[in-house]
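#onboarding

Welcome to the new folks! Below is a worked example of what a typical request in this channel looks like: someone posts a single protein sequence, and someone else replies with the predicted structure as tokens. Don't worry about understanding the tokens yet, we'll cover that in week two.

Example request:
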Amino acid sequence: MEANKTLKVPGATLYYQVRGSGPVLLMIPGGPTDAAIFADLVPHLTDRFTVVAYDPRGNSRSVLDGPAQDVDADVHGDDAHRLLAELGDEPAYVFGSSGGAVIGLNLAARYPGRVRVLVAHEPPCGRVLPDAEEYVAGTEEVYQAYRDQGVEAGMKRFEELVGLSGEEQEPPRTPPSPEMMEGWGRIGGNLDFFLAHVLRPVSGYLPDVAALRSGSARIVIGVGDASTDRQYAYRSAVALAEQLGTPPTVFPGDHGGFVGRSADFAVALKRALGGA
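Example response:
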């Protein structure tokens, strides 16, 4: 099956793509990215799953009804819940990357009956760390840099905050597909919305560890084998896994390992989802 669809939700219209057959696997992208970030990963999953990737509200093709406003993890979690309800009654498999992993954690905590397994890959939940106050203050600095000096300054301060400034990114093993390149072209148009209305409310989310531990969904926290403890998302993932009482699951590549190492990443993701 292959289809591009939209779903009306309160305050926005979500764009989503459906590929493959089998149980539903919802793919949640992070930050200013959209469904195309998974374009090279999805073909490796459609033999086992009906893969559904979407643009979070305010990004790319998921348009808002009115003026932009802050979007927190609860709003994003509600969107994911409504999308899963549109897709059927059975609990779904869910994969979230970065900020998308934060959304997945919110979804699994608040709507556990909707989620069979959640793989949350490097969620930047800075509030689980011992230096949480420093992280929260850092996100405010990012926002002020954006307000005072614009997108470029805001993104520069953001990369410094999350530990990506000056870091060598792992080179891709395979060239990106045209669909992914098209998606990268859209990301620039999402940066204003991300810095103004998403970064602070989503990265400030504190996962409900008690609900996650007691819920019916199985929670897998993922980290990249090329990520480092200089990076907030990696540190947050390790700390959250410890609070959940389970070791983190190691995936190929760095924070975006599914981009440059999609085939290897898909093998690890299928293994983590298990039983599908």
